[in-house]
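for the writeup, i need someone to sanity check this before i put it in the appendix. the sequnce is what the collaborator sent (i think, or maybe the updated version? ugh). structure was predicted straight from it, no edits. if anything looks off just tell me and ill rerun, i have time this weekend
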Amino acid sequence: MSGTPYVIDQVRARDLLARIDVSQILRKLFRDLAAGNAVQPAQQLVEFPQGAGDFINYLGVLADDGVYGVKTSPYIAREQGALVTAWTLLMSMKTGQPLLLCDASELTTARTAATTAVAVDALAPLNAQRLAIIGSGKVAQAHLHYVKTLRDWQSISVYSPSLPEDPETQAVLRNIAPQLKISDSRETALADAEVIMLCTSSAGPVIDPATLSKPALITSISTNAPRAHEVPPQSLNDMQVFCDYRQTTPGSAGEMLIAAEQHGWDKESIIGDLADLLSDKVSRPDYQRHVFFRSIGLGLEDIALANAVYHLTH
């Protein structure tokens, strides 16, 4: 067979992803991980010299599917703002040959949002009705798309500082969920929310769980800026903490690293991860206090979607 991988650009990847049940692919992935049929190594962070940025490699092995791969994502520091790209290479475990090289920007957005959606479905109260989203960019829009049907939402509020003056983005959001409300402040969006999805590129906290009026599920994705976090690190001590994969997330998530170093938080206090939740090893939380779900993005998620895209084309 040819050693040249099939190359997919961003536009083609977007078209193919629309034909895939992303959430179901991720659910299968985490069940495979729980059953020992997949391998998720830790992220590999490599810094460029002279503070010029870094790159992160996200690795993964899907034994049942006979593939492994790596997504590599550089964070390139520039005067006009950092540049972040990502490409995923899919390899055959049978032939040792490259199968696919895919612009991973669309895959990353989809898997990030769908992973949060899988977590919301597994963790949120079954009767949850009030959803708040902090952030309004492409990732926030994808989060809205994947969670809009998971509960009988009576209220969906979205806030970001620029959104009130951005009618174009408002229209995109309302096209996804016509009933949503554009909030004029963070406090208004968060009022009485039962599920709060943080979908920002902020390197520091965007909400303080201690100020919320009642226990809520808070999901966080953050960005790949060094030690980025969307909640105060010390707040982890007061929440029930879950994550995408407990073997690797505490070693990469900014608030977990800082909380362990400065605030006495112990990664052993993590109640469970998505593999645990989807294999029924841990129960849905009781909401006596806030529930925090942290996703760092797993190589397996990228590999699973790249594999699904590959099979649509071959």
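The two ends are 14 Å apart (CA to CA). The chain has nine helices and 16 strands.
thx in advance!!
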